[in-house]
Write a structure and sequence with these properties.
By secondary structure, the chain is mainly α. The protein folds into 3 domains: 70 residues, no CATH class; 179 residues, Cytochrome c-like domain (Cytochrome Bc1 Complex, Chain D, domain 2, Orthogonal Bundle), CATH 1.10.760.10; 195 residues, no CATH class. It is built from 15 helices and 8 strands. Strands 1-2 form a two-stranded antiparallel sheet. The protein has a two-stranded antiparallel ribbon with strand order 3-4. Helix 8 packs across helix 12, helix 13 crosses helix 15 and helix 14 packs across helix 15. The longest helix is centred in the first third of the chain and has 26 residues. The protein is globular. The N and C termini lie far apart (63 Å). 42% of the residues are buried. The N terminus is likely disordered.
């Protein structure tokens, strides 16, 4: 061993050991011989300054490892679709971005059985579950454009000292997103092109909302402590933080693609990266949470504050400042506002949610026929809102053998809520964990998973139809 290595390795061991004192146990019991805990550590032994210095020093290495994974999986270049934009004009990215090995094609892959794909280990890397940028650590993570706007409006800093957001901005939704109300469709985008915050919600909505809805919106933009953003020494911000707001993830009642980990799975390596879904159209939904199957928007609102904000750990929530909402007043008001968030206009759809063929192109019409026919999409996504309000287990684990990917155990996904597809082009990236960057990726994924064997033209037509929903 060289002299430099003698100094480096003990230091590395010290860093690794310290990391385990402030995060969930990340190794399985089988690997370590120790029993893992369902609980996060409450009594932190490491000084905050030491924690911050250690994690800042590790940041570049952590992010490089994750960036290498993204580049191995995806074509991350900026390639907008000609003439296709989101509601406020941001270009939609086009093309299949998941990479295949040189000897493989999508047609060859689609012709193989799940067992054959599994045994030959040719399941596309980009179809595996996507890890959080630092999966052993987890926590809420916001795109820089949102961090910058919140800092500008409120002086509240959502920057984490240990980690930055991972996916390029061009794959993310409009920011700030348009906001539509079922009660005032005549107004169009009621956000007036602004990010709705505690600083401007009243001037924007006074006279448009009733008092309960206005109070609900106020609560949705009010900061409350959260696992990584709080006043204790167990946080990921340089200074003590007032916390986060519901609309930090569901910006303008939509989504800005903020991510974290689901709170209802243990141990840490089995927790799923979480795609923040839009709140548009929650009035027609009967299940809430991508995999939790909460039965009302009130349940969802209360659960987020009590548990999801704190990684599903009510014990550590008590330490960091749990916000116990009053069900009859606060939760009800928040839910009443969420229930009037509407889908974006879809001028080519009739009142039945299907195409007005006088307004649609031939490709879009063929795509609709495929959607409800050969593509087998309509079975779970029926018109008019393109959801069956159920959960389905598509069992992707049929196609691969379980493996660890950057701290994330890729295995069974379990049941996933059928999200509405209305306005879907406004909500990239896709699937419950962001693994699919474009609608083309999504069509290829389900063509493989459902074994529908669509032709290249049929895939293009299906994407054309999805873009007009």
């Amino acid at each position: 061993m060289k002299q430099g290595e003698k100094k480096f390795r003990p230091r590395l061991l010290l860093i690794i050991g310290a990391a385990l004192t402030v995060t969930f146990a990340t190794a399985s019991a089988q690997d370590t011989g120790k029993k893992t805990s369902s609980y996060a550590p409450v009594d932190i032994k490491e000084d905050f300054a030491a924690t911050m210095a250690r994690m800042k020093a590790a940041k570049s290495g952590v992010e490089k490892k994750h960036a290498d994974l993204l580049n191995e999986r995806y074509d991350l270049s900026k390639r907008p679709a000609q003439g296709i934009t989101m509601s406020r004009g941001k270009p939609v990215q086009e093309g299949v971005r998941v990479k295949l090995s040189k000897e493989m094609t999508w047609d060859k892959l689609a012709a193989m059985s799940p067992d054959e794909i599994r045994e030959k280990d040719v399941f596309p890397a980009g179809f595996f579950p996507l890890p959080f940028p630092n999966h052993p650590e987890g926590g809420m993570l916001f795109p820089k454009f949102h961090i910058d706007e919140i800092k500008k409006q409120e002086g509240r800093d959502l920057t984490r000292f240990d980690l930055d957001y991972d996916l390029p901005d061009h794959f993310l939704p409009d920011f700030p997103a348009a906001m539509y109300l079922t009660t005032r469709s005549d107004l169009g985008d009621v956000s007036q092109g602004k990010l709705v915050t505690i600083m401007n919600y009243y001037e924007l909505f006074n006279g448009i909302l009733n008092p309960k809805q206005l109070e609900g919106l106020r609560l949705l933009v009010t900061p409350f402590p959260q696992q990584q953003f709080n006043q204790t020494e167990d946080r990921r911000t340089e200074k003590p933080s007032r916390g986060v707001v519901c609309f930090d993830c569901h910006a303008n009642g939509h989504t800005n693609a903020s991510t974290h980990l689901v709170g209802d799975i243990r141990p840490q390596e089995f927790r799923h990266r979480l795609d923040t879904p839009t709140l548009r159209g929650v009035n027609i939904q009967r299940l809430f949470g991508s995999q939790r199957a909460l039965k009302s928007v009130e349940d969802f609102t209360e659960f987020e504050q009590r548990a999801a904000y704190f990684d599903g750990d009510h014990v550590i929530a008590a330490k960091k400042g749990i916000n116990i909402l009053d069900r009859g007043h606060q939760v009800h008001s928040m839910a009443e506002f969420q229930a009037i968030l509407d889908f974006p206009p879809a001028p080519k759809l009739g009142i039945d949610g299907k195409l007005d063929e006088k307004k649609a192109s031939e490709s879009e019409i063929r795509g609709q026929q495929l959607f409800f026919g050969k593509g087998n999409c309509g079975g779970c996504h029926p018109a008019p809102y393109y959801t069956d309000n159920l959960m389905h287990n598509i069992k992707t684990e049929r196609f691969f053998k379980p493996r660890m990917i950057n701290g994330r155990m890729a295995s069974a996904d379990g049941p996933i809520k059928t999200f509405p597809l209305r306005g879907i082009k406004d909500s990239p990236p896709y699937l419950h964990d962001d693994r699919l960057l474009t609608l083309e990726d999504t069509v290829e994924f389900f063509n493989l998973i459902l074994q529908t064997r669509l032709s290249e033209q049929e895939k293009k037509d299906l994407v054309a139809f999805l873009r007009v929903l």
